[in-house]
Amino acid sequence: MATLAHKTIAEAREGLRYGAFSARELLEACATRCTTSQHNAFLTFCLEEAQKAAEEADRHWKKGAPRGLEGIPLAIKDAFCTKGIRTTAGSRILEKFIPPYESTVTQKLREAGALFLGKTNMDEFAMGSSNITSAFGPVVNPWKKASCSAPLTPGGSSGGSAAAVAAHLCLGAMGTDTGGSIRQPAAFCGITGLKPTYGRCSRWGIVPLASSLDQAGPMTKTVRDAAILLEVISGYDPKDSTSAAVEVPPFEKEIGASVQGWRIGLPKEYALEGLAQEVRDLWERGACWLREAGAEIVEVTLPSTPYALPAYYIVNPAEASSNLARFDGVRYTTRVAAEGLLDLYEKSRTEGFGAEVKRRILIGTYVLSAGHYEAYYLKARKTQALIRQEFLDAFKQVDLLLTPTVPTGPFALEEVPHDPVTMYLNDVLTVTVNLAGLPAISVPAGLTAEETPLGLQLIAPPFQEGRLFRAAAVLEDCAQFPYWKEEA
After folding, report:
1. Which domain CATH number covers 17?
2. Annotated catalytic sites, by residue?
3. pTM, whole model, 2 decimals?
4. What whole-number distance in Å separates Cα of residue 445 and Cα of residue 3?
């Protein structure tokens, strides 16, 4: 049975405006589902604080002076530092860390009147594509296969945020995307996930993985909701040296606008070996929908695509090894009893970090070391530059690119590959966007034969998120994806 928690952000905004329900009632509907959920989507709740914020939101509505997200309940990925609220990044080493400051993105949300239900589970330090690397247990996808009830992965690393939205525990959530960590779980959980242009949203106050690739973004039930949230969290931030001083357009106005006369590119290199046939079929169906909407479909080539994944898994661990050096057991991290400083470093990091984090630290340290820097890291950076230029060249011919989001549908947690290289292949269709610093959106567009979600990905030139919203809304209207499905 549908409740207030099943509403979209746009619908809730209208209901609050006309007094159909209060912010407090909306919060209670979400909180009830949160506290009874079996998905392990949240690591920390902050419901008491949310209740006080809901009362303030109701006062704003009564005065006729609501802010942009007044009274809207959201979930926040545990990579965002939140003042006075525990922030773990899914790691045991930060299990007791309570930040004395607020990330820029969450501060913008608070100032817009949003309510925070809590912090969502994630792969440790955002390293993973299945949410099984979290030190606090895996997240369970709200969807199930038709043939069995085995729990499915929600994808990662923003799997907790994706599951929370799909299970109607919140109306929207924040995620971070370093190589597909918003888009891949969005596809697996049947929701919309947007990775903005690098620099569109501030990274200040986000626990970093790879600083040149990380970007915050919204995870929502609809394309319109993603536009609403992006407009709030975007903008220049002097505290972030990579923040771009570009105008923030009214993204929501793009919803419903025509794509007549647009050229949509299909990169032939994305027709990878191992791409499930039902994913190929959905890709063709998405192209047909856009063609029927008046767009021209053309084939384009991005020849360096096969080198993207190897380059990504050099750049990512290299930057991660540098960023994670700050977690040493001395300052804001879990400290283990030891004899001497070096022993403290060794024991704290050994016990505090999980296997995947240790693996990437080792790889990153190796590729940055003397004698290997030029052979690995420098070549990866050159490949990254080449990939970006190929995208920019393609956008001289087309307005957008259309691709699948992931090679397959979600798999059972018990089927998660133990071989890390096999696991990394889940990112093969998404990492190119991060390497090139481009915006991309995943839209739920179909179901597998097992009745689990599949997504389509749209990629745009830098700072052209408006194009994404316009075309994504077309796909959404054509797909009529059943995100209201109660089991989800």
Report:
1. 3.90.1300.10
2. 77, 157, 181
3. 0.96
4. 24
